[in-house]
Amino acid sequence: EVVGKTWRELKLPEAFGVLSDQDRVTVLQTGQPISREFKYNVPYGELEIEFVTNPVLNIKGEIVSFVITARDITERRQTIRAMHRAQKMESLGVLAGGIAHDFNNLLVAMLSQASLAQVHLDESQPAYEHVSKMVQAAEQAATLTRQLLAYSGGGQFTIQPLHLNKLIDESVELLRVALPKQVELQLDLAADLPHIDADV
Fold first, then answer.
1. CB neighbours (10 Å) of residue 27?
2. Does the pLDDT of residue 163 top 60, yes or no?
3. H or E element: which one contains 67?
4. Can you give the residue ranges of every domain in the chain?
5. 14-72 has which CATH code?
6. pLDDT single digits (tens) 21-47
């Protein structure tokens, strides 16, 4: 029903506003095609259309009119955006891997010094508990660093049996030190949970 009809015959807005007066003059005077892309909101989402305006020539090669061709480029644009997102994620992975590697070197030094201090302290001394928590926190930070390296392709996951309640209890102890005194943590953990295989 629309083949061969003009925009006006179809009673549509002037080329959906895709061709300005300046573009029309440019095509008719220079014969150069003009491409424009527009987005439209439709019931099922967003539609991206490319409109290409080309001159129409008579048998003498003179420009007598122009024709507008519309093409749905929604899928192509979505693919391009997805590729850009993937490239960004890859770049972030490389960056995270570099940071994790440097941070891991710092953690090794911190763990070494904290472990050395722990050896020279008696368990009855108040400082022993603080140093022990320092070692525990550094070990957890090292675990996170290994996970970052694994995600960035610079390391590997280590799957092992894990007791969730024990992990939560250990994490809560570290949280209590960092949280303000007015914040109270209350746990309601199910007893006798089975072990799970996970990377920690």
1. 22
2. yes
3. strand 63-72
4. 14-72
5. 3.30.450.20
6. 788 888 888 889 988 888 878 788 888
